[in-house]
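thoughts on these tokens:
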Amino acid sequence: MPSNAEAAEIFRNIADLLDVLGERFKPEAYRRAARSIETLAEDLGAVAARNELGSIPGVGEAIGEKIREYLATGTVHYYERLKREVPPGVVELLRLPGLGPKTARRFWVELGIEGPAELATAIEAGRLTGVKGFGEKKIDQIRLALAAARAAPRSGHDRAAIESVYPVAERIVQALRAVPGTERAEAAGSFRRCRESVGDLDILVTSTAPEKVFDAFTALPDVREVRVRGPTKETVVLASGLQVDLRVVEPAAFGAALQYFTGSKDHNVHLRSIARARGLKVNEYGVFRDDERVAGRTEEEVYGALGLAWIPPELREDLGEIELAARGPLPPLVAQEDLVAEFHVHLPPTASPSDIDRLVAEARSRRLSFLGVVVGEVDADGHARSLPPSTVRRLGAAAVEGLTVARAIETGLGPRPEPFGRLAADYRILRPTRSEPAAFAPPTDRPEPLVIAHLGAEGTAPETVRRWIDLARRASASVEVGPGPERLDSTWARIARESGVRLALPSGLGLPPEDPTVAIALGFARRAGAGASAILQKRSLSARSRSGT
């Protein structure tokens, strides 16, 4: 069945094949279309049915025709033709980590190498030694990539949810930082960009004792198998099946390596084109003019050498962030210190007044300025419950200096439920239920909605999510963003933000310090390009109250 993800993959592969064939301008056009399709929050077929494919950024008449062909037949004739022009083994070379289409073309055209096996033979025979652009380190990197590919062929679709990878990455990085001689240790890749899913986990380290770092890495309790170990890289597989690649790099190249292995691929391809236009070369070892390294110790150096401001990792998807960085520093994104309010706290139905006291104490210790507690709620099945009256009364008197304490009710779109008719509340949290009215309209009875919660895009029709976001806009409400099936991901967060809807993020109240929910929610909001003014907080709530909305 045709899908947006498969269409994006086809157009991305077309771009790679065109690069291998030496085309100069077409590859970027297909990559841009692939990025737009991949982040499209609506089914391609629905857009095509409305004859609006041209509204998708990067989709002109020619690519639009190929989309329609794909939707009708499940394939693209142009793509099949390109695959026949490039030997299958050269396409396999494109899948080796760190080896891009232009390098694959050099192997094929200049050296007659048409696949991984031939490349391995050429390396062992010394055919790459002395070839411009293939120094000893580069050859070692290719050798390790070949070994890893032989040990663990991957489908390219085996990815883990970031919330399952987050504690693993934190644990590994902390363990490596504790090794004597370690100077820096950071996670990179799609994890650092806070993508919703992670393929392999990349870790970078600078150390005066690389062997100790590798030994400590191998000795981690959940390491199931060591697949590759070389002088600068080790690859292991954890008990969960997650592959982790550890690289030890020199301090002078750490910033370049961190930028390179953070990606994304499209972002890095764009940077390399800027470098070429300036007579430079950029790779994981630094920015070079001829053989002189002119930058590499920090990411700021790398971007600066290319005439760009530093770009936050979460934005590195080649969706316009490079053009912004060429004009100057990017606007600051939302950060942990901006999360000064918590609007959506649930307590057990048996919560006592002392539970309110403990919650207020924690809110004060976290220096929050606003605390909103749900005193009555309707779940997805329509069942209603509320906190005991004594607990609600304690909440009503719990405000202390510097902390506003408020009461919320959580309901579906229908009228305020009868059990809550006399329950005093300051605002409403709306949530999807299994029986919603046909008309999506903000409730007219008080209190007015402030947050739309438990709205997950997973398993929900895109049109329905869009209707909720539009309702949030009309009601001046915010939408919850974060990991899990009941919050919106970064793609929908961007759509909401661009629609003028604020994002509601958790503050961490009531969560253990190691829980990654807040960090991931922040990452999703940052991926959406949200600054502090784009999130719901006490300041925005006060402004809303003054405006009378």
